[in-house]
Amino acid sequence: MQVLSNCSRWLLDSPTVEVYLYIVRYPLMPAVAVLRGAAILETQRRMRHNFQDRERWRNPDWRTKFVAWWEGYDLAALSRLARTAPASRLPLRGPVAALGSAAPAAALPPEAPRPDADLERLENLQLDRQGEPVWSVARTEGAQMLWGQDCVGPGDSQWMVESVRSFGLNPAKSVLDLSAGLGGPARGIVDSYDTWVTGLEMSPLLAKLGMERSKALGVSKKAPIGHYDPEHFNQAGSFDLVLADRVMHRVRDKENFLDRVCDCVKPKGGVLLFDYVIEGTPSSWESWNGWRDSEPLEVYPWSATRMADELTQRNLDLRISEDLTQFHRRQAVDRVRRLGEALKTAVPEPRVLKALARELALWWSRLRVLGSGLRFCRYVAMRPT
């Protein structure tokens, strides 16, 4: 506890901790200190273990030399490899062939593909501006700690279920979700209205994990999740409702994207959009530029008026244009408070901790501009007969 106490005093100056503290003020301070302190202790423990292990082989005592001779190891060769191999090299497999009477090692069978190799490949299909995966398995785990099971952003499945209630969904109708994520909201709509939801997601990794989750829950036919590129969107078929949560501001060619969206809507069908839009002049250009720089990918937000005009120009009847900025902020802040309570009883492993810190830093930069030049709005439009 004394070590954690010392860590806590040092951690108060950390920029990452400011992310936690500014959002929820002081209730999160003990949880953050323990979380970061545990991560530091774990890192130090691993470093000590690796150093001691390397030193044992580089400077063996007589017991180690005897065991190595008996088992047929060449310690001199191992020492040379340890000095020349890169730090990231995988551990040696099997015995090293030694000079003398020791029999040569048998050829090792080819290494079987690791179960997570496909997920790593999908992670690297979508990289941010620093060359890092936009979404990783660790980030999905951290995001779910923050936002809830099968959710990767504010607004859980029940919130989306309530948002689409006015569209009168039933088993004879179909929905296209262009912001499927891990598929939680899509499956919630299926469970509540017994309707059919086709989920599309920009992240290859999230689409893969979302589809696996739908299969595991037995709704792969009613709530399939697939990958798509909104810049080249051309979905076949037509739907009674097309919805997208925080997608438009990430699309460069929004005019073409909206054209394709309207092509998917049946007569008397609806469009439901939640998105970030520009409103006036930012109160702080430093915060505004900080937000744009912190986003993993480029953002291209329209103004609130432009969004409404573009929907109207496509022969859609714009029914609702609503500012939900304060509600959106409360969603995020409430979730961070819940996270603080959860961290008092459970600390994630270091890889998830790192991803969680990144997620919080991203949302900190968003909250700084929400209501100060950036707004979160809801648009409901209907296609006439």
Automatic annotation (TrEMBL):
Pathways involved: Phospholipid metabolism; Lipid metabolism
Q: Which GO terms describe its molecular function?
A: methyltransferase activity
Give UniProt keywords alphabetically.
Answer: Methyltransferase, Transferase
| Keyword Transferase found | yes
Give the protein name, as stated in the record: Class I SAM-dependent methyltransferase
Q: Which CDD domains match?
A: AdoMet_MTases (cd02440)
> What biological-process GO terms show up in the record?
methylation
Task: Tell me the PANTHER family matching this sequence.
Answer: PHOSPHOETHANOLAMINE METHYLTRANSFERASE, PHOSPHOETHANOLAMINE METHYLTRANSFERASE ISOFORM X1
Question: What InterPro entries does the annotation carry?
Answer: SAM-dependent_MTases_sf
